[in-house]
Amino acid sequence: MEYFVWSASPIAFSLGPFTVFWYGILFAASILLGLEFMKWAFKLEGKDEAVLEPLFLYTVVGIVVGARLGHCLFYDPAFYLAHPLKIFAVWEGGLASHGGGLGAILALYFGSKKYKMDFLWLVDRLIVPTALFGFLVRMGNFMNSEIVGLPSDVSWAVVFTKVDSLPRHPAQLYEAFSYLAIFILLFSIYKFSKAKVKPGMMFGIFLTLVFFARFLVEFVKVKQADYDTSFLMMSTGQALSIPFFLVGLGFIIWSLKKA
To answer: Is the per-residue pLDDT at 229 higher than 80?
Structure first.
């Protein structure tokens, strides 16, 4: 059987000594799209746009710091505890979505307190572009030929030539298109039914769907943690997804009871 062969360069272009990667372009695009969505939501619902940019800055810092610390502590703690300065070497790669999600939530919570905004109102809106953020970042991972799946003989398997010559599950694409579908769902709910949806419901839907999808994809993804996880009877990514999934269910139930 012939499989799709992926050998694209992760480099978009170079300008003298500067190299620009597709991952960086997609990451930056997702941040800018998120900001534009929130500007639209603030204007649509008559909120003070003056607080948006500092709040968004809180969130971006929370995502980056949380994702980096999450990768260091969740996936390779022995190395980073032995070499703590390497934690700051973001250019060497290593961002964890679970840590990024937790960092964003904490940053937004403290930011909402400082600028006197309703926390649930903010997260119910911010999760819409966050789902799109997940889609674009996973496409960046695909461009980098990283976070690959296990070897497989399914007809849609991909050979990542930068990894080896084996056909594999395109785990990045599984996640990417799951997040894209979640974005379309959440955007539709917000655009057409936001007045009927109780606070916390969209946040709950986001957490349950995103981390359920992540849990499933982990079954076909190459192990990422640099330590033995057999005692968990699941991968590190699956173990980290369960609390987020349960919190999401909790928000859905709480929102329904409030309704």
So the answer is: no
- Take residue 236 and report the two structure tokens written for it: 């590190």
Q: Provide the token pair at 105.
A: 């939530």
Query: In the structure encoding, which two tokens stand for residue 23, read together?
Result: 């991952």
Question: Please, what is the average pLDDT of the chain?
Answer: 90
Task: Look up residue 4 and give its DSSP letter.
Answer: E
Tell me, what DSSP letter sits at residue 223?
P
Mean pLDDT of 119-124: 94
- Per DSSP, the three-state class of 221 is strand
How big is the chain, counted in residues? 259
Question: DSSP assignment, residue 168?
Answer: E
CA distance 134 to 140: 10
CA atoms within 13 A on the CB side of 240: 22
Q: What's the confidence (pLDDT) of residue 85?
A: 84
| Phi, psi dihedrals of residue 223, rounded to the nearest 5° | -55, 130
Rg (CA), the chain: 19
Model confidence at 159, pLDDT cuts 50, 70, 90, reads very high
- Find the helix or strand (DSSP H, E) in which 24 lies: helix 22-44
Provide the β-strand partners of residue 159: 5, 167
